[in-house]
Fold this protein.
Amino acid sequence: MSRDLPFDKARDARGRPGEFEVIDTFFAPLAASAIGAYGLKDDAAIWQPTAGHDLVLTVDMLVESVHFLPTDPADLVARKLLRVNLSDLAAKGASPLGYLLALSLPARIDGAWLSQFAEGLALDQRAYGVSLWGGDTVSTDGPLTLSVTAVGQVPTGQALRRGGGQVGDDIFVTGTIGDGALGLKAATGMLDGLDEASRAQLIQRYQLPEPRVAFGPDLLTFATAALDVSDGLMADLGHLCDVSGTGATVEANCVPLSEPVARLLDMDRQHLVPVLTGGDDYEILFTARPGQEAAIQSRACEKGLRVTRIGTLTDKASGLRAVDRAGAEIVLAHRGYTHF
Amino acid sequence: MSRDLPFDKARDARGRPGEFEVIDTFFAPLAASAIGAYGLKDDAAIWQPTAGHDLVLTVDMLVESVHFLPTDPADLVARKLLRVNLSDLAAKGASPLGYLLALSLPARIDGAWLSQFAEGLALDQRAYGVSLWGGDTVSTDGPLTLSVTAVGQVPTGQALRRGGGQVGDDIFVTGTIGDGALGLKAATGMLDGLDEASRAQLIQRYQLPEPRVAFGPDLLTFATAALDVSDGLMADLGHLCDVSGTGATVEANCVPLSEPVARLLDMDRQHLVPVLTGGDDYEILFTARPGQEAAIQSRACEKGLRVTRIGTLTDKASGLRAVDRAGAEIVLAHRGYTHF
């Protein structure tokens, strides 16, 4: 691990830890279980691949005030950083192995923050069975900027892709949709009409997505295409359709909602827009050939995971549509965070 | 590749390209030769490992005004970003395969900058035989922040480490030392006494290190330990000694110098300090059992690379020392960029 930290050699007057202390105290323990990470005392990590497997690699960068709020607790920021990457791996059907961490730290980041950040990583490393393989830590005059490159493995040639969906495939999502977008509204004080517990539930979902790591490899049995919902349900379905060469129709009334979001929609149907187009859900959107639903539901049930069929892949000419209970198209100004 | 870019859908009034144009025009061509990158149309890259090889992974983050100058041309920034990572792989004895790129872009970054940045990457991809595997691009209010995770391979179990050096080993470096640190001084107007061509040569070396990619795998034949010189010669030798459990004596007069740096030392012996302790050389520092020098020089000659023996690993109690021609210790305030 590189040691180009905005810290002095020793503890300073404010009790800010020295640079070696930062690596040794906070980060080296996170690498203890990875043989090839060499306790972060080397410039690179070594991984001996498992025979019969491909590696899957993904990178995500989070910037303070863009992807998380400056007031978000450090442990939640750490866990979100790791989880958004684990979500990408799960959507490929991959099992996670390890990750490399790059941190650009403003001067206000102190030992207490780093300690809490490392605690968050440690918690999720145990939860998802991954280790820190290596990293780089640098100083910045700008916002806190965090990047994780996550590595997973999948049986050779079996990784799921965005392409692969066929006309007639059923469309499924895991978990519930809309909590991320409405949780952000709640966290920034832009959401009225909910009791405190429901607000807290939505904010938690925004701050701490639940990557479907345990279910990812199950997808290999039946999914034709998959990706995780980060840009927004319709935008991400659009990505899948673009690469698969299909259209899609989403039955909006089938989209699975958490109780707080269902209540918001009962109060004001306009909340359907952030549900369909908001981002940050980190659920898996996948397609499967017709007739697979019973097998899928059985597997989901074993994993204690809600999986819901929300529509059908159509021919490309039919485009990407969301329809209401009566089959009438719901007009959306745009599909999601990524503008079309 | 994620598409969370600070760009509008279409070209704006200033001719700033749309977000799809950025990925498709600038970055997708860099991924064209990597099957598992899927033209950056997916969330993750797939790599089928080569039988009999371990993977080597490393990450580096560069921040504007910390690691490169705001006035540095975009293509040189791109190439430096890639090269500092390739240097880490070479020092493990690994051959590079591909890389993932994370960019945090301030609003002033326009299509012209990105085009030049991508041109720099394309040039070095060809030079070093690597492809872009994936990436993430986000917006920031802060300085331009760039991160590369590079992946290479090495025959199973053979990756070189910082540890492995033994008392009595010869210490070698590739290329010349000190150009990076004195090049930075030249680039920031803090270096007098050189003609324009020499100044330009040093600045180029600072802006564009030459990772020893072709020589890296040769190290597997004879090196006991290796790392690249990024923190500074003495600091990095200190890292090698710390992990190897040895001391080291460097014969300062043997440290290989470029012509401009040799001339600077002739003018003022004080320039020896940045040579021994300055960073950013990205040469490989390695150790080998005694009696190997002829074989090493023969191999280096084949690759057209200068390799120089600069000292010996000693017992730990002797510490880390630089000595002059007469064998007297040269006192250095600190070892390099990483303060001890």
The CA atoms of residues 183 and 201 of chain A lie 8 Å apart.
